[in-house]
Design brief:
There is one protein chain. The longest helix is centred in the N-terminal third of the chain and has 62 residues. The protein has 470 residues and is of the alpha+beta class. 57% of the residues lie in helices and 17% in strands. The strands form three sheets. A five-stranded antiparallel beta sheet has the order 2-1-5-4-3, with helices on both faces. A five-stranded mixed beta sheet has the order 7-9-10-12-11. A hairpin with a 5-residue loop joins strand 1 and strand 2.
């Protein structure tokens, strides 16, 4: 479980990093752009307000005729004392030496601000802004300096100064709000991603554990499926795979047990009769024993051939040797061969031929005969209790059809879909490897025909072989 948890944690981490990183970067850029825009907006708005005041005030101040520096000083005192916005903005009048002559605050008179906007205004005769730290107080301020003219000469500077503390406090609140919104959005995205990834990770962990159990030998293990999406389809596929593996393992075990028994029975008979014949010289007994040994040997040979055919089917080496074949003649030869054999077992073999002569078809005669013999053997083995087997050949321009019907108990309906599967024997107690019909089906499929097994009306099993006509 430890290793599995590490892998799941890694999946969750990769998912969160890949999904949250772009969102976080975009959100950070948006919030950063917003904050920078807000700072510039506030600062520009303040600066524009100060410039507007300075422009109007300096124009009004210089429009009054000043004949001397004394009048300038008198006007400055009067203007500063009547300044209505002294609670928010400090109005300063600065002399040519850079010191404050008059201030709406009164306390800064005689001090030299020492900021570059003052000297720039003296030089350029234009309104000059300043934003930064006051050298005297260390406070963040914003100021604008407007030159005052007397006889085309700059006699002083009118300077508006305001503290940035309130603005910075508002900006800090705005930035904090934007950052909080960013954090809230990231938290929402993170939460929704965690819910989603957990809904993916948990079933993946369950699938992983079940797959490990199946790999460890717990064939047939099943998972409860509570999902209707791709996860649900995956769980259904795993459950189906587990069931199929369990079924295959069961069939394989039954096949090994069945084949072991099937091989042991003829070998026991051969060994037993071999030992008997060594001790018994009776001609009649000798003939009987040799017959049994030959019969059991043929059965062993057939089983080995079926196993070899199955092996070739599994690795793709099962091929045909095609030549032109008279299908009806091949089937009739098989029928006549089995008629005498079935007579010895009191089974009547009936054959209904077709008056129409079919043109030879490209086929493998040995493989087709293998199919005919297997079908007739099965009919005698499973339907011998009916003591009768009917066979027929019919066809048209497109197909040739061969049918073999016995009158035994037939195949249980529940087993019909599986009778052609490898190793499947169902409820039958008859001897055999369980792969003969699978081999027959493969042979007919390679001939581009169909091999069907069903129950006939009135009882018994019906095998229908359909091959394309020439």
């Amino acid at each position: 479980m430890g290793r599995n948890r590490i892998e799941i944690t890694g999946l969750r981490k990769r998912w969160l990093v890949s999904s949250l990183s772009p969102i976080f970067v975009v959100a950070l850029l948006v919030v950063g752009t917003f904050c920078v825009g807000m700072v510039n907006y506030y600062y520009n708005m303040m600066l524009d307000g100060l410039k507007t005041r300075a422009t109007h005030a300096s124009d009004y101040f210089t429009s009054n005729t000043m004949n001397s520096y004394g009048e300038f000083y008198q006007y400055a005192n009067s203007f500063a004392s009547e300044f209505a916005e002294r609670d928010l903005i400090e109005l300063q009048f600065i002399g040519s030496d850079g010191e404050i002559l008059v201030s709406s605050y009164g306390l800064t008179a005689g001090m030299a601000p020492g900021t570059p906007d003052i000297y720039a205004a003296f030089q350029s005769r234009e309104i000059e802004p300043f934003r930064g730290v006051d050298p005297n107080t260390g406070e963040h301020i914003m100021a604008v300096s407007a030159p005052l003219l007397l006889d085309e000469q700059v006699v002083g500077i009118m300077r508006y100064v305001t503290s940035m503390s309130a603005v910075q406090r508002e900006l800090l609140i705005t930035v904090a709000g934007a950052a909080g919104l960013l954090v809230a959005c990231i938290a929402m995205v993170y939460g929704s991603n965690m819910v989603f990834i957990n809904n993916v990770v948990e079933p993946v962990a369950e699938v992983t554990e079940t797959a490990k159990r199946i790999a460890g030998g717990s064939y047939g293990a099943q998972m409860e499926n509570h999902y209707r999406d791709e996860i649900g389809q995956l769980i259904d596929a795993i459950n189906n795979m587990s069931s199929q593996i369990s079924k295959s393992e069961k069939i394989k075990s039954e096949f090994i047990s069945s084949v072991s028994h099937e091989l042991r029975t003829p070998l026991t008979a051969i060994n037993g009769w071999g030992e008997t014949l060594l001790e018994d010289t009776d001609p009649q007994q000798l003939r009987r024993g040799v017959g049994i040994i030959l019969k059991e040997s043929r059965r062993l040979t057939n089983m080995v051939e079926e196993l070899l055919d199955f092996s070739k089917m599994e690795d793709g080496r099962f091929t045909l040797r095609i030549e032109q074949v008279d299908l009806q003649a091949e089937f009739e030869d098989t029928i006549y061969t089995y008629m005498e054999l079935f007579k010895q077992e009191s089974i009547e073999l009936h054959y209904e031929g077709c008056d129409e002569l079919f043109a030879p078809i490209p086929a493998d005669p040995e493989r087709l005969k293998q199919v005919f013999c297997n079908v007739l053997d099965n009919a005698a083995k499973h339907g011998g209790a009916g003591k009768r087997i009917d066979t027929a050949v019919s066809g048209d321009d497109a197909h040739i059809t061969i049918t073999v019907r016995d009158y035994g108990p037939g195949v249980p309906e529940a087993e019909l879909p599986f009778v052609k599967q490898k190793f499947y024997k169902g409820s039958s107690k008859a001897r055999g490897s369980g792969i003969g019909l699978a081999v027959c089906d493969e042979i007919i499929r390679l001939h581009e025909g169909t091999f069907e097994i069903g129950n006939a009306a009135g009882g018994g099993c019906l095998v229908t072989i359909t091959l394309p006509a020439a």
